[in-house]
Amino acid sequence: MHYIFITGGVSSSLGKGLATAALGSLLQLNGFKVRLRKLDPYLNVDPGTMSPYQHGEVFVTEDGAETDLDLGHYERFTDVNCKKTDSISAGGIYSKVLKKERKGEYLGSTIQVIPHVTDEIKKFIVSDLNSEDFVLCEIGGTVGDIESLPFLEAIRQLKNDNDNYSCAILHVTHVPWLQTAGELKTKPTQHSVKQLLSVGIQPDLLLCRTDKIIDDDLKNKISLFCNVNKKRVITAVDANNIYEVPSLYYKEGLDKEILNFFNIKKISKKSNLNIWNKVVKRFNNPNSEVTIAIVGKYTNLKDSYKSLVEALHHGGIANKTKVNIKWIQAEKIESKNGINLFNNVDGILVPGGFGLRGIEGKIRSSKYSREKKIPFLGICLGMQMSIVDIGRNVLKLKDCHSSEFKKNLKNPIIGLMTEWIKNNQIEKRNINSDKGATMRLGKYKCIVKKKSLAHKIYSNESISERHRHRYEVNTKYLKKIESNNFVISGMSPDRKLPEIIESTSHPWFLGVQFHPELKSRPLKPHPIFISFVKACINKKNNEKN
Ligand code: GLN
Q1: Which tens digit of pLDDT belongs to each residue from 490-517?
Q2: 515 among known catalytic residues
Q3: pTM beyond 0.90, yes or no
Protein backbone atom coordinates (compact mmCIF):
# COMPACT_ATOMS: atom_id res chain seq x y z
CA MET A 1 0.00 0.00 0.00
CA HIS A 2 1.40 3.41 -1.01
CA TYR A 3 0.24 6.69 0.46
CA ILE A 4 0.36 9.99 -1.36
CA PHE A 5 -0.36 13.02 0.80
CA ILE A 6 -1.44 16.10 -1.07
CA THR A 7 -0.81 19.36 0.74
CA GLY A 8 -1.28 22.92 -0.46
CA GLY A 9 0.57 26.17 -0.06
CA VAL A 10 0.64 29.84 -1.07
CA SER A 11 -3.10 30.24 -1.34
CA SER A 12 -6.36 28.38 -1.19
CA SER A 13 -8.41 27.52 -4.31
CA LEU A 14 -5.43 26.14 -6.22
CA GLY A 15 -7.46 23.11 -7.23
CA LYS A 16 -5.87 20.56 -4.90
CA GLY A 17 -9.03 18.47 -5.01
CA LEU A 18 -9.01 18.38 -8.76
CA ALA A 19 -5.29 17.58 -8.77
CA THR A 20 -5.89 14.68 -6.38
CA ALA A 21 -8.78 13.40 -8.50
CA ALA A 22 -6.82 13.66 -11.77
CA LEU A 23 -3.81 11.90 -10.26
CA GLY A 24 -6.15 9.18 -8.97
CA SER A 25 -7.41 8.66 -12.51
CA LEU A 26 -3.88 8.51 -13.95
CA LEU A 27 -2.86 5.85 -11.45
CA GLN A 28 -6.00 3.87 -12.27
CA LEU A 29 -5.18 4.07 -15.95
CA ASN A 30 -1.82 2.52 -15.09
CA GLY A 31 -3.74 -0.42 -13.70
CA PHE A 32 -3.69 0.41 -9.98
CA LYS A 33 -6.49 0.31 -7.46
CA VAL A 34 -6.89 3.69 -5.77
CA ARG A 35 -8.71 5.20 -2.84
CA LEU A 36 -9.09 8.95 -2.39
CA ARG A 37 -9.55 10.64 0.97
CA LYS A 38 -9.90 14.12 2.34
CA LEU A 39 -8.87 15.45 5.75
CA ASP A 40 -10.30 18.88 6.53
CA PRO A 41 -8.85 21.07 9.25
CA TYR A 42 -12.00 22.98 10.31
CA LEU A 43 -13.78 22.25 13.59
CA ASN A 44 -17.26 21.46 12.24
CA VAL A 45 -17.89 17.75 12.74
CA ASP A 46 -18.76 17.58 9.02
CA PRO A 47 -19.77 20.15 6.38
CA GLY A 48 -23.46 19.16 6.64
CA THR A 49 -24.42 22.20 8.69
CA MET A 50 -22.21 24.69 6.82
CA SER A 51 -23.67 27.29 4.47
CA PRO A 52 -22.98 26.62 0.80
CA TYR A 53 -21.70 30.20 0.69
CA GLN A 54 -18.92 29.26 3.10
CA HIS A 55 -18.14 25.81 1.92
CA GLY A 56 -19.69 25.20 -1.50
CA GLU A 57 -21.76 22.12 -2.20
CA VAL A 58 -22.15 19.37 0.39
CA PHE A 59 -21.37 16.14 -1.43
CA VAL A 60 -23.27 13.08 -0.18
CA THR A 61 -21.78 9.60 -0.45
CA GLU A 62 -23.66 6.35 -1.09
CA ASP A 63 -23.43 5.48 2.61
CA GLY A 64 -24.83 8.84 3.64
CA ALA A 65 -21.85 10.95 4.71
CA GLU A 66 -22.13 14.69 4.16
CA THR A 67 -18.72 15.63 2.81
CA ASP A 68 -16.58 18.17 1.08
CA LEU A 69 -17.21 18.92 -2.59
CA ASP A 70 -13.76 17.57 -3.48
CA LEU A 71 -15.15 14.07 -2.97
CA GLY A 72 -17.36 14.85 -5.95
CA HIS A 73 -14.24 15.43 -8.06
CA TYR A 74 -12.77 12.17 -6.77
CA GLU A 75 -15.85 10.20 -7.81
CA ARG A 76 -16.19 11.91 -11.17
CA PHE A 77 -12.57 11.25 -12.13
CA THR A 78 -12.14 7.74 -10.73
CA ASP A 79 -15.69 6.37 -10.57
CA VAL A 80 -14.77 4.92 -7.17
CA ASN A 81 -17.62 5.59 -4.75
CA CYS A 82 -16.32 7.35 -1.65
CA LYS A 83 -17.40 6.20 1.79
CA LYS A 84 -17.92 7.68 5.24
CA THR A 85 -14.38 6.58 5.98
CA ASP A 86 -12.98 8.82 3.22
CA SER A 87 -13.69 12.17 4.75
CA ILE A 88 -13.01 13.60 8.17
CA SER A 89 -12.57 17.03 9.72
CA ALA A 90 -10.63 18.16 12.77
CA GLY A 91 -14.03 18.47 14.47
CA GLY A 92 -14.76 14.83 13.64
CA ILE A 93 -11.36 13.74 15.00
CA TYR A 94 -11.74 15.78 18.20
CA SER A 95 -15.24 14.46 18.83
CA LYS A 96 -13.92 10.88 18.56
CA VAL A 97 -11.11 11.67 20.99
CA LEU A 98 -13.44 13.38 23.47
CA LYS A 99 -15.95 10.54 23.32
CA LYS A 100 -13.17 8.08 24.20
CA GLU A 101 -11.99 10.34 27.00
CA ARG A 102 -15.49 10.41 28.51
CA LYS A 103 -15.64 6.65 28.36
CA GLY A 104 -12.36 6.49 30.26
CA GLU A 105 -10.60 4.72 27.41
CA TYR A 106 -7.37 6.64 27.92
CA LEU A 107 -6.98 5.17 31.41
CA GLY A 108 -6.29 8.44 33.18
CA SER A 109 -3.83 9.94 30.68
CA THR A 110 -3.69 13.65 30.01
CA ILE A 111 -5.17 14.04 26.54
CA GLN A 112 -2.89 15.93 24.17
CA VAL A 113 -2.71 16.84 20.48
CA ILE A 114 0.39 14.65 20.25
CA PRO A 115 -0.11 11.70 20.59
CA HIS A 116 -3.88 11.37 21.09
CA VAL A 117 -5.21 13.57 18.30
CA THR A 118 -2.45 12.64 15.87
CA ASP A 119 -2.95 8.93 16.65
CA GLU A 120 -6.64 9.25 15.85
CA ILE A 121 -5.78 10.94 12.53
CA LYS A 122 -3.26 8.22 11.65
CA LYS A 123 -5.77 5.55 12.54
CA PHE A 124 -8.29 7.17 10.23
CA ILE A 125 -5.83 7.38 7.33
CA VAL A 126 -4.96 3.68 7.42
CA SER A 127 -8.42 2.35 8.33
CA ASP A 128 -11.04 0.57 6.19
CA LEU A 129 -8.79 -0.19 3.24
CA ASN A 130 -9.25 -3.08 0.91
CA SER A 131 -6.06 -4.03 -0.95
CA GLU A 132 -5.74 -0.65 -2.65
CA ASP A 133 -2.37 0.05 -4.29
CA PHE A 134 -2.52 3.76 -3.65
CA VAL A 135 -4.27 5.86 -1.03
CA LEU A 136 -4.38 9.51 -2.02
CA CYS A 137 -5.02 11.66 0.97
CA GLU A 138 -5.66 15.36 0.51
CA ILE A 139 -5.08 17.70 3.45
CA GLY A 140 -7.54 20.60 3.22
CA GLY A 141 -6.50 24.19 3.84
CA THR A 142 -3.07 25.70 3.33
CA VAL A 143 0.21 25.03 5.18
CA GLY A 144 0.61 27.61 7.87
CA ASP A 145 -3.03 27.45 9.02
CA ILE A 146 -3.19 26.77 12.75
CA GLU A 147 -5.88 24.14 12.27
CA SER A 148 -3.83 22.01 9.84
CA LEU A 149 -0.95 21.45 12.26
CA PRO A 150 -2.19 18.17 13.82
CA PHE A 151 -2.83 16.75 10.32
CA LEU A 152 0.63 17.70 9.06
CA GLU A 153 2.18 16.28 12.21
CA ALA A 154 0.26 13.03 11.68
CA ILE A 155 1.50 12.61 8.12
CA ARG A 156 5.04 13.51 9.22
CA GLN A 157 4.83 10.68 11.74
CA LEU A 158 3.37 8.24 9.22
CA LYS A 159 6.13 9.01 6.76
CA ASN A 160 8.73 8.54 9.45
CA ASP A 161 7.27 5.18 10.35
CA ASN A 162 8.89 3.83 7.17
CA ASP A 163 8.77 0.19 8.08
CA ASN A 164 5.04 0.07 7.78
CA TYR A 165 4.13 2.66 5.20
CA SER A 166 5.60 4.06 2.03
CA CYS A 167 4.57 7.66 1.64
CA ALA A 168 5.08 10.53 -0.78
CA ILE A 169 4.29 14.17 -0.14
CA LEU A 170 2.96 16.05 -3.14
CA HIS A 171 2.84 19.76 -2.41
CA VAL A 172 0.62 21.94 -4.60
CA THR A 173 1.83 25.54 -4.87
CA HIS A 174 1.34 28.60 -7.01
CA VAL A 175 3.85 30.18 -9.38
CA PRO A 176 2.23 33.51 -10.20
CA TRP A 177 2.87 35.67 -13.24
CA LEU A 178 3.73 39.21 -12.23
CA GLN A 179 2.43 41.49 -14.92
CA THR A 180 4.64 44.45 -14.00
CA ALA A 181 7.82 42.37 -13.97
CA GLY A 182 6.74 40.25 -16.93
CA GLU A 183 7.96 37.20 -15.03
CA LEU A 184 6.82 34.07 -13.27
CA LYS A 185 7.81 34.22 -9.62
CA THR A 186 9.06 31.29 -7.57
CA LYS A 187 9.38 33.01 -4.20
CA PRO A 188 5.86 32.11 -2.96
CA THR A 189 6.65 28.46 -3.68
CA GLN A 190 9.97 28.71 -1.84
CA HIS A 191 8.24 30.22 1.17
CA SER A 192 5.53 27.64 1.14
CA VAL A 193 8.06 24.80 1.10
CA LYS A 194 9.86 26.51 4.02
CA GLN A 195 6.58 26.50 5.95
CA LEU A 196 6.26 22.80 5.32
CA LEU A 197 9.88 22.23 6.37
CA SER A 198 9.21 24.12 9.60
CA VAL A 199 6.81 21.34 10.60
CA GLY A 200 9.32 18.69 9.61
CA ILE A 201 8.02 17.80 6.16
CA GLN A 202 10.15 17.82 3.03
CA PRO A 203 7.94 17.57 -0.07
CA ASP A 204 8.88 14.85 -2.56
CA LEU A 205 7.10 16.36 -5.53
CA LEU A 206 5.89 19.86 -6.30
CA LEU A 207 2.87 20.52 -8.44
CA CYS A 208 3.16 24.15 -9.50
CA ARG A 209 -0.10 25.78 -10.52
CA THR A 210 0.47 28.50 -13.07
CA ASP A 211 -1.06 30.11 -16.12
CA LYS A 212 2.23 30.06 -18.09
CA ILE A 213 4.66 27.24 -18.88
CA ILE A 214 7.42 26.98 -16.28
CA ASP A 215 10.65 26.74 -18.29
CA ASP A 216 13.76 24.73 -17.45
CA ASP A 217 15.64 27.59 -15.80
CA LEU A 218 12.77 28.24 -13.47
CA LYS A 219 12.38 24.56 -12.67
CA ASN A 220 16.11 24.44 -11.84
CA LYS A 221 15.64 27.33 -9.48
CA ILE A 222 12.62 25.80 -7.75
CA SER A 223 14.46 22.48 -7.52
CA LEU A 224 17.54 24.10 -5.98
CA PHE A 225 15.74 26.22 -3.42
CA CYS A 226 13.10 23.67 -2.49
CA ASN A 227 15.37 20.64 -2.45
CA VAL A 228 13.15 18.67 -4.85
CA ASN A 229 14.59 16.79 -7.84
CA LYS A 230 13.96 18.88 -10.99
CA LYS A 231 12.03 16.05 -12.67
CA ARG A 232 9.66 16.15 -9.75
CA VAL A 233 8.88 19.83 -10.16
CA ILE A 234 5.74 19.49 -12.25
CA THR A 235 3.98 22.30 -14.10
CA ALA A 236 0.22 22.29 -13.66
CA VAL A 237 -0.90 24.86 -16.16
CA ASP A 238 -4.50 26.19 -16.14
CA ALA A 239 -6.74 23.96 -18.26
CA ASN A 240 -9.65 25.11 -20.44
CA ASN A 241 -11.63 22.11 -19.35
CA ILE A 242 -11.16 20.18 -16.11
CA TYR A 243 -11.27 16.84 -17.94
CA GLU A 244 -8.08 17.85 -19.76
CA VAL A 245 -6.16 17.79 -16.48
CA PRO A 246 -5.22 14.06 -16.49
CA SER A 247 -3.68 14.45 -19.98
CA LEU A 248 -1.83 17.62 -18.97
CA TYR A 249 -0.37 15.86 -15.93
CA TYR A 250 0.55 12.86 -18.02
CA LYS A 251 2.44 15.09 -20.47
CA GLU A 252 4.31 16.63 -17.55
CA GLY A 253 5.21 13.15 -16.28
CA LEU A 254 3.38 13.29 -12.96
CA ASP A 255 2.36 9.64 -12.86
CA LYS A 256 5.77 8.52 -14.18
CA GLU A 257 7.56 10.43 -11.43
CA ILE A 258 5.21 9.10 -8.74
CA LEU A 259 5.87 5.54 -9.89
CA ASN A 260 9.62 6.25 -10.00
CA PHE A 261 9.45 7.63 -6.50
CA PHE A 262 7.95 4.40 -5.21
CA ASN A 263 10.37 2.34 -7.32
CA ILE A 264 7.53 0.83 -9.30
CA LYS A 265 8.71 -0.34 -12.70
CA LYS A 266 5.92 0.40 -15.08
CA ILE A 267 5.72 2.50 -18.23
CA SER A 268 2.79 4.83 -18.26
CA LYS A 269 1.27 4.65 -21.76
CA LYS A 270 -0.05 7.57 -23.79
CA SER A 271 -2.97 5.48 -25.06
CA ASN A 272 -4.21 5.35 -21.47
CA LEU A 273 -5.40 8.89 -21.94
CA ASN A 274 -7.71 8.09 -24.86
CA ILE A 275 -10.80 7.96 -22.69
CA TRP A 276 -10.22 11.48 -21.40
CA ASN A 277 -9.21 12.80 -24.82
CA LYS A 278 -12.53 11.55 -26.20
CA VAL A 279 -14.49 13.39 -23.48
CA VAL A 280 -12.57 16.60 -24.13
CA LYS A 281 -13.00 16.25 -27.89
CA ARG A 282 -16.76 15.84 -27.57
CA PHE A 283 -16.92 18.75 -25.16
CA ASN A 284 -14.93 21.02 -27.49
CA ASN A 285 -16.82 20.09 -30.68
CA PRO A 286 -20.55 20.35 -29.97
CA ASN A 287 -23.12 20.17 -32.80
CA SER A 288 -25.57 22.49 -31.07
CA GLU A 289 -26.11 24.47 -27.90
CA VAL A 290 -28.88 25.03 -25.38
CA THR A 291 -29.40 27.44 -22.51
CA ILE A 292 -30.66 26.11 -19.21
CA ALA A 293 -31.75 28.39 -16.37
CA ILE A 294 -30.76 27.36 -12.85
CA VAL A 295 -33.13 29.08 -10.42
CA GLY A 296 -31.43 28.91 -7.05
CA LYS A 297 -30.58 30.62 -3.81
CA TYR A 298 -26.80 30.33 -3.82
CA THR A 299 -26.20 31.36 -7.44
CA ASN A 300 -23.50 33.90 -6.46
CA LEU A 301 -21.18 31.06 -5.55
CA LYS A 302 -21.06 28.56 -8.36
CA ASP A 303 -19.27 26.02 -6.13
CA SER A 304 -22.59 25.61 -4.32
CA TYR A 305 -23.87 23.72 -7.36
CA LYS A 306 -20.64 22.00 -8.42
CA SER A 307 -22.02 18.52 -9.14
CA LEU A 308 -25.11 19.94 -10.79
CA VAL A 309 -23.11 22.00 -13.26
CA GLU A 310 -20.88 19.03 -14.02
CA ALA A 311 -23.89 16.75 -14.51
CA LEU A 312 -25.43 19.23 -16.98
CA HIS A 313 -22.16 19.29 -18.91
CA HIS A 314 -22.10 15.49 -18.89
CA GLY A 315 -25.63 15.52 -20.31
CA GLY A 316 -24.33 17.97 -22.93
CA ILE A 317 -21.36 15.75 -23.80
CA ALA A 318 -23.69 12.78 -24.27
CA ASN A 319 -25.81 14.83 -26.68
CA LYS A 320 -22.81 16.53 -28.35
CA THR A 321 -24.34 19.80 -27.23
CA LYS A 322 -22.92 22.78 -25.41
CA VAL A 323 -24.93 23.57 -22.29
CA ASN A 324 -24.93 27.27 -21.40
CA ILE A 325 -26.10 27.96 -17.89
CA LYS A 326 -28.13 31.04 -17.07
CA TRP A 327 -27.90 31.67 -13.34
CA ILE A 328 -31.03 33.22 -11.87
CA GLN A 329 -31.47 34.30 -8.25
CA ALA A 330 -34.82 32.76 -7.31
CA GLU A 331 -36.14 35.94 -5.67
CA LYS A 332 -35.67 37.83 -8.96
CA ILE A 333 -38.40 35.63 -10.45
CA GLU A 334 -40.74 36.94 -7.74
CA SER A 335 -40.67 40.52 -9.07
CA LYS A 336 -43.34 41.76 -11.47
CA ASN A 337 -41.47 41.08 -14.69
CA GLY A 338 -39.23 38.42 -13.21
CA ILE A 339 -40.57 35.80 -15.56
CA ASN A 340 -38.94 37.70 -18.46
CA LEU A 341 -35.65 36.29 -17.24
CA PHE A 342 -36.79 33.05 -18.84
CA ASN A 343 -36.83 34.61 -22.33
CA ASN A 344 -34.73 32.46 -24.65
CA VAL A 345 -34.06 29.66 -22.17
CA ASP A 346 -34.57 26.11 -23.41
CA GLY A 347 -34.98 24.47 -20.02
CA ILE A 348 -35.53 25.38 -16.38
CA LEU A 349 -33.89 23.64 -13.45
CA VAL A 350 -34.77 24.29 -9.82
CA PRO A 351 -32.09 22.65 -7.67
CA GLY A 352 -32.02 21.53 -4.05
CA GLY A 353 -31.74 23.97 -1.18
CA PHE A 354 -32.86 25.10 2.24
CA GLY A 355 -34.57 28.19 3.61
CA LEU A 356 -37.30 30.60 2.67
CA ARG A 357 -35.47 33.14 0.53
CA GLY A 358 -36.62 32.93 -3.08
CA ILE A 359 -39.07 30.12 -2.41
CA GLU A 360 -42.00 31.83 -4.21
CA GLY A 361 -39.71 32.35 -7.21
CA LYS A 362 -39.06 28.63 -7.35
CA ILE A 363 -42.80 27.86 -7.19
CA ARG A 364 -43.41 30.40 -9.94
CA SER A 365 -40.69 28.82 -12.09
CA SER A 366 -42.48 25.48 -11.90
CA LYS A 367 -45.80 27.08 -12.85
CA TYR A 368 -44.24 28.93 -15.78
CA SER A 369 -42.50 25.79 -17.12
CA ARG A 370 -45.74 23.83 -16.84
CA GLU A 371 -47.82 26.42 -18.60
CA LYS A 372 -45.30 27.27 -21.32
CA LYS A 373 -44.29 23.63 -21.82
CA ILE A 374 -40.62 24.33 -21.15
CA PRO A 375 -38.57 21.28 -20.06
CA PHE A 376 -38.40 21.37 -16.26
CA LEU A 377 -36.25 19.48 -13.79
CA GLY A 378 -36.91 19.95 -10.08
CA ILE A 379 -34.36 18.43 -7.73
CA CYS A 380 -35.17 17.84 -4.05
CA LEU A 381 -36.38 21.28 -2.88
CA GLY A 382 -37.04 22.02 -6.56
CA MET A 383 -39.28 18.96 -6.77
CA GLN A 384 -41.01 19.85 -3.51
CA MET A 385 -41.77 23.36 -4.81
CA SER A 386 -43.18 21.95 -8.06
CA ILE A 387 -45.57 19.91 -5.88
CA VAL A 388 -46.54 23.08 -3.98
CA ASP A 389 -47.17 24.75 -7.35
CA ILE A 390 -49.38 21.84 -8.42
CA GLY A 391 -51.18 21.91 -5.06
CA ARG A 392 -51.89 25.62 -5.24
CA ASN A 393 -52.45 26.17 -8.95
CA VAL A 394 -53.81 22.86 -10.27
CA LEU A 395 -55.54 21.29 -7.26
CA LYS A 396 -56.53 24.78 -6.04
CA LEU A 397 -55.71 23.96 -2.44
CA LYS A 398 -55.82 26.88 -0.01
CA ASP A 399 -52.96 27.58 2.42
CA CYS A 400 -50.76 25.01 0.69
CA HIS A 401 -47.02 24.88 1.26
CA SER A 402 -44.20 22.86 2.76
CA SER A 403 -44.23 22.76 6.55
CA GLU A 404 -40.54 23.68 6.33
CA PHE A 405 -41.67 27.22 5.51
CA LYS A 406 -44.98 27.68 7.33
CA LYS A 407 -46.38 26.08 10.45
CA ASN A 408 -50.03 25.04 11.03
CA LEU A 409 -50.87 24.88 7.34
CA LYS A 410 -54.27 23.80 6.15
CA ASN A 411 -52.61 21.86 3.34
CA PRO A 412 -49.06 20.76 4.20
CA ILE A 413 -48.44 19.08 0.85
CA ILE A 414 -44.78 18.69 1.86
CA GLY A 415 -44.21 17.64 5.46
CA LEU A 416 -41.56 16.56 7.94
CA MET A 417 -40.91 12.86 7.73
CA THR A 418 -40.62 11.50 11.24
CA GLU A 419 -39.98 7.86 10.47
CA TRP A 420 -38.51 5.85 7.63
CA ILE A 421 -36.76 2.57 7.02
CA LYS A 422 -33.03 2.34 6.41
CA ASN A 423 -31.23 -1.00 6.16
CA ASN A 424 -34.30 -2.72 7.66
CA GLN A 425 -34.26 -0.43 10.69
CA ILE A 426 -36.62 2.38 11.57
CA GLU A 427 -34.99 5.83 11.65
CA LYS A 428 -36.87 8.38 13.76
CA ARG A 429 -36.69 12.17 13.80
CA ASN A 430 -38.66 15.03 15.21
CA ILE A 431 -38.59 18.79 14.94
CA ASN A 432 -36.16 19.04 17.87
CA SER A 433 -33.63 16.52 16.51
CA ASP A 434 -30.04 17.71 15.99
CA LYS A 435 -29.57 19.45 12.65
CA GLY A 436 -26.30 17.64 11.84
CA ALA A 437 -26.43 14.28 10.03
CA THR A 438 -30.12 13.71 10.77
CA MET A 439 -31.61 14.04 7.31
CA ARG A 440 -32.57 11.18 5.02
CA LEU A 441 -29.06 10.73 3.72
CA GLY A 442 -27.33 8.55 1.16
CA LYS A 443 -28.60 5.88 -1.18
CA TYR A 444 -32.18 4.60 -1.14
CA LYS A 445 -33.93 2.30 -3.55
CA CYS A 446 -36.80 3.56 -5.65
CA ILE A 447 -39.30 1.60 -7.71
CA VAL A 448 -40.06 3.15 -11.08
CA LYS A 449 -43.48 2.90 -12.71
CA LYS A 450 -43.51 1.08 -16.04
CA LYS A 451 -44.23 3.10 -19.18
CA SER A 452 -43.49 6.39 -17.42
CA LEU A 453 -40.97 8.99 -18.57
CA ALA A 454 -38.78 7.95 -15.64
CA HIS A 455 -38.91 4.34 -16.83
CA LYS A 456 -37.94 5.42 -20.32
CA ILE A 457 -35.03 7.38 -18.87
CA TYR A 458 -33.68 4.63 -16.61
CA SER A 459 -34.81 1.56 -18.63
CA ASN A 460 -35.12 -0.07 -15.24
CA GLU A 461 -37.79 -0.62 -12.61
CA SER A 462 -35.47 -0.64 -9.64
CA ILE A 463 -33.05 2.24 -9.20
CA SER A 464 -30.98 3.66 -6.37
CA GLU A 465 -30.23 7.33 -5.84
CA ARG A 466 -28.69 9.56 -3.17
CA HIS A 467 -30.73 11.71 -0.81
CA ARG A 468 -30.24 14.67 1.49
CA HIS A 469 -33.48 16.12 2.87
CA ARG A 470 -35.71 16.28 5.89
CA TYR A 471 -39.11 16.85 4.24
CA GLU A 472 -41.17 14.56 2.00
CA VAL A 473 -44.22 14.69 -0.24
CA ASN A 474 -47.34 14.14 1.89
CA THR A 475 -48.91 10.91 0.57
CA LYS A 476 -52.38 12.15 1.58
CA TYR A 477 -52.44 14.21 -1.63
CA LEU A 478 -51.19 11.59 -4.09
CA LYS A 479 -54.59 10.50 -5.43
CA LYS A 480 -55.56 14.08 -6.16
CA ILE A 481 -52.25 14.82 -7.80
CA GLU A 482 -52.51 11.71 -9.97
CA SER A 483 -56.02 12.48 -11.12
CA ASN A 484 -54.79 15.77 -12.60
CA ASN A 485 -52.40 14.69 -15.35
CA PHE A 486 -49.47 13.92 -13.08
CA VAL A 487 -47.92 10.57 -12.26
CA ILE A 488 -45.93 9.62 -9.21
CA SER A 489 -43.55 7.52 -11.25
CA GLY A 490 -41.11 6.64 -8.48
CA MET A 491 -41.85 5.41 -4.94
CA SER A 492 -39.80 3.94 -2.12
CA PRO A 493 -40.13 0.12 -2.07
CA ASP A 494 -42.51 0.31 0.94
CA ARG A 495 -44.61 2.80 -1.07
CA LYS A 496 -44.48 5.37 1.72
CA LEU A 497 -42.17 7.93 0.15
CA PRO A 498 -42.85 9.52 -3.25
CA GLU A 499 -39.58 9.88 -5.14
CA ILE A 500 -40.43 11.01 -8.68
CA ILE A 501 -43.27 13.07 -10.14
CA GLU A 502 -43.90 13.78 -13.79
CA SER A 503 -46.55 15.41 -15.94
CA THR A 504 -48.43 13.48 -18.60
CA SER A 505 -49.53 16.63 -20.40
CA HIS A 506 -46.10 18.18 -20.86
CA PRO A 507 -43.17 17.26 -23.11
CA TRP A 508 -40.70 16.91 -20.20
CA PHE A 509 -41.59 17.82 -16.63
CA LEU A 510 -39.83 15.85 -13.93
CA GLY A 511 -39.34 16.32 -10.20
CA VAL A 512 -37.06 14.04 -8.20
CA GLN A 513 -36.72 13.88 -4.43
CA PHE A 514 -33.12 12.67 -4.75
CA HIS A 515 -29.95 14.21 -6.17
CA PRO A 516 -29.13 12.54 -9.50
CA GLU A 517 -26.27 15.00 -10.08
CA LEU A 518 -24.23 13.24 -7.39
CA LYS A 519 -23.99 10.08 -9.48
CA SER A 520 -23.22 11.59 -12.86
CA ARG A 521 -19.76 10.99 -14.31
CA PRO A 522 -18.13 12.41 -17.44
CA LEU A 523 -17.57 8.85 -18.65
CA LYS A 524 -21.07 7.76 -17.51
CA PRO A 525 -23.43 10.73 -17.75
CA HIS A 526 -26.56 10.34 -15.62
CA PRO A 527 -29.60 9.31 -17.72
CA ILE A 528 -31.78 12.07 -16.24
CA PHE A 529 -29.35 14.75 -17.45
CA ILE A 530 -28.96 13.09 -20.86
CA SER A 531 -32.74 13.08 -21.25
CA PHE A 532 -33.22 16.61 -19.87
CA VAL A 533 -30.64 18.14 -22.23
CA LYS A 534 -32.21 16.18 -25.10
CA ALA A 535 -35.63 17.62 -24.22
CA CYS A 536 -34.13 21.13 -24.24
CA ILE A 537 -32.61 20.50 -27.68
CA ASN A 538 -35.99 19.28 -28.96
CA LYS A 539 -37.75 22.33 -27.59
CA LYS A 540 -35.23 24.62 -29.27
CA ASN A 541 -35.51 22.78 -32.59
CA ASN A 542 -39.33 22.79 -32.48
CA GLU A 543 -39.29 26.54 -32.01
CA LYS A 544 -37.02 26.99 -35.02
CA ASN A 545 -39.31 24.94 -37.28
N1 GLN B 1 -35.06 21.67 2.44
C2 GLN B 1 -35.64 20.48 1.88
C3 GLN B 1 -35.68 19.34 2.86
O4 GLN B 1 -34.96 19.34 3.84
C5 GLN B 1 -34.91 20.07 0.62
C6 GLN B 1 -33.48 19.69 0.84
C7 GLN B 1 -32.67 19.65 -0.42
O8 GLN B 1 -33.06 20.20 -1.43
N9 GLN B 1 -31.52 19.02 -0.38
O10 GLN B 1 -36.41 18.42 2.69
Answers
A1: 999 999 999 999 999 999 999 999 999 9
A2: yes
A3: yes
